[in-house]
Amino acid sequence: MIHTQTPHKHRCFLYNKELMPYVDALQWQRSLLKERINNPDLEDVLILLEHPPVYTLGQGANPEFLKFDLDKSEYNVHRVERGGEVTYHCPGQLVGYPILNLQRYRQDLHWYLRQLEEVLIRVLANYGLQGERIPGFTGVWLEGRKVAAIGIKVSRWVTMHGFALNVCPDMTGFNRIVPCGITDKPVGSLAEWIPGIISLEVRSCIAQSFSEVFGVELIDSHYE
């Protein structure tokens, strides 16, 4: 399959962070979102990072999908403003947080979700793997295993939250939840198909695919 590259229309700042606590990344996203609601002319942003082990629940998520007592949890659990059910983040999973003003692209949330899926499908294709969508669900599957989860929040057409791609995480953390509330479709990671793969090498591939799909010029940036 030949992918045609969309001409670059906008600049987008790319922040590559290694390990960042979930709460710190959440505050950073909220700050970027607020700034862009107040000033829609600010550049778009893509953050790529990994989190220490943490569980997150979407705004309307059902706590029954947790297999442990929320009130007595030894694990970090956060209920946040994204859509979707419970998910798990840990090192070896690459998380992407696009802060995009959709008025520059298309004011259509279904379109945006499909674009995020397309980014990840292209990443998998780069490794000779055929990522798939499943009608009625959001995310990307490989041979029936969900390798990428997506959950977003949009305010005044500015996005936050985003996607999580399982590259080489410790998958045992998923055993304590019903991931994304889906009981009959297991989760998987790229390491099952590509032994020895590490998240560092996948970052540039995600950035390249994101640039192509959204037609943006990524500008390497630094955040202290």
UniProtKB/TrEMBL annotation:
Its EC number is 2.3.1.181. Substrate binds at residues 82-89, 149-151, 162-164. Keywords: Acyltransferase, Cytoplasm, Ligase, Transferase. CDD domains: LipB. It catalyses: octanoyl-[ACP] + L-lysyl-[protein] = N(6)-octanoyl-L-lysyl-[protein] + holo-[ACP] + H(+). It is found in: Cytoplasm. One of its GO terms (biological process) is protein lipoylation. GO terms for cellular component: cytoplasm. Residues 40-218 form the BPL/LPL catalytic domain. The keyword Transferase applies. The active site is at 180 (acyl-thioester intermediate). It comes from the Bacteria. The record marks 146 as: Lowers pKa of active site Cys. HAMAP family: LipB. Belongs to the LipB family. In the reaction, the free carboxyl group of octanoic acid is attached via an amide linkage to the epsilon-amino group of a specific lysine residue of lipoyl domains of lipoate-dependent enzymes. Catalyzes the transfer of endogenously produced octanoic acid from octanoyl-acyl-carrier-protein onto the lipoyl domains of lipoate-dependent enzymes. Lipoyl-ACP can also act as a substrate although octanoyl-ACP is likely to be the physiological substrate. This is Octanoyltransferase. It comes from Sphaerospermopsis reniformis. The lineage of its organism: Bacteria, Bacillati, Cyanobacteriota, Cyanophyceae, Nostocales.
